Amino acid sequence: MLKDFVKAAKPEEEQITKEVKQAREKLAVYQMKIKEAKLPVMVIFEGWGSAGKGSVIGRVIRSIDPRFFTVKTMGDPSPQDMRYPFLYRYMKEIPEAGKFVFFDTFWMEEVTGQKMSGEIDEKTYARRVRSINTTERSLTDNGYLVMKFFFHISKKTQKKRLQALLDDKSTAWRVDENDILENKEYKKYLETYDRYLEDTNRSAAPWYIIDASDKKWAELQVLRFLNQGIDTALKNHSLAVPILQNTFRLNKIPLLSEISLADKTISDEEYRKELDRLQKKLRDLHNELYLKKIPVIIAYEGWDAAGKGGNIKRITAALDPRGYEVQPIASPEPHEKARHFLWRFWTRLPKDGHIAIFDRTWYGRVMVERLEGFCSENDWQRAYNEINQFEKELAEWGAVIIKFWVQIDNETQLARFTDRQNTPEKQWKITDEDWRNREKWPQYEQAVDEMLQKTNTSFAPWYILESNDKKYARIKALRIVVEALKKAVEKK
Amino acid sequence: MLKDFVKAAKPEEEQITKEVKQAREKLAVYQMKIKEAKLPVMVIFEGWGSAGKGSVIGRVIRSIDPRFFTVKTMGDPSPQDMRYPFLYRYMKEIPEAGKFVFFDTFWMEEVTGQKMSGEIDEKTYARRVRSINTTERSLTDNGYLVMKFFFHISKKTQKKRLQALLDDKSTAWRVDENDILENKEYKKYLETYDRYLEDTNRSAAPWYIIDASDKKWAELQVLRFLNQGIDTALKNHSLAVPILQNTFRLNKIPLLSEISLADKTISDEEYRKELDRLQKKLRDLHNELYLKKIPVIIAYEGWDAAGKGGNIKRITAALDPRGYEVQPIASPEPHEKARHFLWRFWTRLPKDGHIAIFDRTWYGRVMVERLEGFCSENDWQRAYNEINQFEKELAEWGAVIIKFWVQIDNETQLARFTDRQNTPEKQWKITDEDWRNREKWPQYEQAVDEMLQKTNTSFAPWYILESNDKKYARIKALRIVVEALKKAVEKK
Q1: Which secondary structure element, helix H or strand E, spans residue B1, and what is its range?
Q2: Terminus of chain B with fewer CB atoms < 10 Å: N or C?
Q3: Minimal Cα distance from B287: which residue of A?
């Protein structure tokens, strides 16, 4: 793309000044429409060192009220960042509805830099590109406008600018070794950038190459594309997007109605013995996980009153409290609802070596949000694939992912609800909403079946916990966790 | 305290088991009451290495539903943490209303560790102790329950436990050099711990020394104190607290009614010239700030339509967007309202070398929250001192703090409101609430006068920007900022 890039005809100086002024006014008007339409806007600046990204960002934001934007400089990942998936530090910073975030370099800088230095091999590079493409797609699918600018200058221009910076004592510190190297090996970098731009130039979030040989002209190009992009996004904002096919290899899993519950029981004696034995094992494994820096994600979904809480407790009882966190997931807070539906899960991931247990999860999208109409049909239909992608990211990061569906039958739920209602200490556990949800059992059952079928991947499998007998379910959960962790520890 | 510590009589084994069971049940009941009363609970575990803090935390949390607590292991500050004030990483983690946070070591560990290693001198130590005491007090004043446990064991017991850990291959990694050193120089550490406990043993958040020679017994002691503490806090939760006297040296500042506005004007020519000159200076200073790692906080308060936004823009126009952030402050979101009122400002602080510009600030507490009844009288009366303390922390961290009150008269506001109402592009800037607030001008004026008088400290002074002529106010703001930054840069 860079190699074939044909510069747009640069207008006269005077014309540029005039057009910049108009474009700024347009952007000032758009900021209000963006707010009204609750459109989240990511503006990503990448490009050569000294191409003037920072100063153009500085000019562009002058048209926008500070309430509506922030600027983020991503830089290199810190040691803390390195303990999370590659995408983590980027996903944390995505804008909320109605606001701009301007990024001074983003994932391109990290990936191409690591490719050039040999820190990542061809295979990892390909995986990064895939992660980026699917994430950008998922962002735009969820209503984000993603604008990507590459600031392009020639080797000669870059050299001149670097020299000018170095010659001035007050700016010399801005030039680092990387900039020098980039200029020296301009051609090699050009190849890498060009390839990356090709690899990530998708229709949902295409690249705009900016002729950055002149700052004011660069600003005008950015403003033109940005205004165009916003205009299109505002027009399309409420349109549904074509749903990507879910092409993950899925394992078979029974329908809920095929699961037999009555025979899944355990004697008290056996329970005690197994609980003790498995918790001891789990305790030791937790130590090893920590030392080997393996992250673990345990996701619990299930019927109300199925016994999730008690089940989780039997797991955590064996864990060092410094190495795990239980994440209870309720309905999203306003600042969470204003972002991509997976944002609040991205920001709750465990560090490597740590365990996160989710009490309810991102699957709310295809259960409660689907059935209560909190998102559109297009949203939840799309979500199976988005969730599989998300879990794939976690798996490739090295996480062990265990997903539990805690299953009971309709009569057992009724018995437990009634018991809660009649026992003063338990009354807080039962609300009118629980009763209302219960009435929708058939719809939920259908949604759960669809969810289990469509998201039972090899890297993030579902396990059914038959929980009419809670003790049986607890032992089964412990066994599955111990087994999965043993395998992960041995492999690493 | 440690040296004079008399162990409580340890009950028989059987009695402990019985009491632990009862205490756990009590705690399980309390968790619901805490939720109802919206009580935030901080439980801080400090003490000797290998005293069993982690395992007692693990036992105590078994009685509590994961929805109601988290466990935080603080560890050493990361390089990222070091770019913020000492208190920052702790304040970030305070619990929200109705929830527990259990801390596996807190600020004591950091301060005593640094004191022992000589990283901080006597003066810094004294400052840390003061920061901690005022912060703990402010937390309890704002309705937090702060429980502090010190886990005490003898030199002999510690040695035995460390040896046992070292002897087992699977646990040896848990023992680090510090633990060994602590045991070797037990007496010196004892002196330091003892002194710190004395220094921070205040009635609002007293220390509880736990005889940790036996784990189960330690758990029982913790549970007893914790239940007691919760019981007292629940009883006192809605009681007002005695207000600490505001003992900061305050500089004189005029009443709003004494400020003359009509004569504060500037010609267009002078404005252009000065704007240019000052923005150039500011640009250079921003570079130096960055290099010298000086954090800057600029706080804007003022009447609606006084021209805060335009004023801020003239500052930011001179800044590199990678080095500053404008923080627009609206009414708090639910997760913000659920915490100490300063929490959302702590978490928005700039890194060192960066500038944060607050468009409205923590002074909302003594203006809108006071006048609209969003907090109690005790709350806002207390807040002057709390705010002075907060700003003092920032100043001692090395921050430049500049506070602007943007002043206009009543007629000018009316003219600007009317103009906004009548100009389609400006209508979004004016709401019914603005008109309602305008009716309360006299009450606001009184509150602002009181605020300016009570918080005009030498380390965080107020500056009046006379803004009937917006251009005059912009130039004045730029001059003040340039002056303050120049002084800070020269000093460092």
Answers
A1: none
A2: C
A3: A170
